[in-house]
Design goal:
about 240 residues, alpha/beta, Alpha/beta knot, six-stranded parallel beta sheet, four-stranded mixed beta sheet, 10 helices
């Protein structure tokens, strides 16, 4: 069982990397971690939570766990409104990057909620390899993990990647100025889909790698699409 001091240190990226650990909150995400046989170090929960959620506590089995007060869970949790249960997990050991599978590449994506949505959405469409640039947000940021709702434990590969390392793929760039996704023919090619930052789109350095820009036709008056929503629409077409 790790100390409460060590749990609180995992609020910071530096200590997540140093200790190879991250925080998982909420019964759904922790249940996903248990089902995936993730390496869970410790679980902390309040008495009130245990009374209302006996089912998940039964799943803890031999995992080191303990009851903490509501005040303590607020200190341990990076959330404004803690759910009442929190776990610390080892960062998953992923399979090797598979060059025969499609991949999503995140170019400087910085919003934690968007990244969590991207992970969940990618899995929905059967894409379980996610690469990200060095300037993207840490995928183990607590807000990302909370938004992903257990997706981290189902992905086969997640890691920092250079576009120079993506060889033999048709590189597609998501851009509102691109060719309509409805007209794209990928001819059973392996593809890599680049999603750019929420504020600036795809970076200049990433643009140099793109084979084709693809976009979503606008039929209404909206200003723009959220990056996670955009990716979902594109994946719906790409995975048909």
């Amino acid at each position: 069982m790790i100390s409460q001091k060590q749990v609180k240190s995992l609020h910071l990226r530096k200590y997540r990397s140093l200790n190879n650990q991250f925080i998982v909150e909420g019964s759904r995400s922790i249940s996903s971690a248990i089902d995936a046989k993730a390496r869970i170090d410790s679980v902390f929960y309040t008495l009130d939570f245990s009374k209302k959620n006996p089912t998940i506590l039964e799943k803890l089995n031999k995992i080191p766990s303990g009851i903490v007060s509501s005040k303590e869970i607020r200190k341990l949790s990076p959330s404004t409104n803690p759910s009442g249960i929190l776990a610390t997990c080892k960062i998953p050991k992923f399979e090797s990057f598979n060059k025969n599978k499609n991949i999503i590449f995140l170019d400087n994506v910085s919003d934690p909620g968007n990244l969590g949505t991207i992970l969940r959405t990618a899995l929905w469409f059967g894409i379980d390899q996610i690469g990200y640039s060095s300037k993207s947000i840490d995928p183990y940021n607590p807000k990302v993990v909370r938004s992903a709702m257990g997706a981290h434990f189902s992905i086969s590969w997640l890691g920092e990647l250079s576009l120079d390392d993506i060889k033999g793929y048709k590189i597609l760039g998501a851009d509102h100025r691109g060719k309509s996704i409805h007209t794209i023919n990928i001819d059973n090619q392996r593809w890599a889909l680049i999603m750019g930052s929420e504020a600036r789109g795809i970076s200049k350095s990433a643009h140099s790698h793109i084979d084709e820009l693809i976009g979503i036709p606008k039929v209404g008056d909206g200003e723009s699409l959220n990056v996670g929503v955009s990716m979902g629409i594109l994946l719906h077409e790409l995975t048909k």
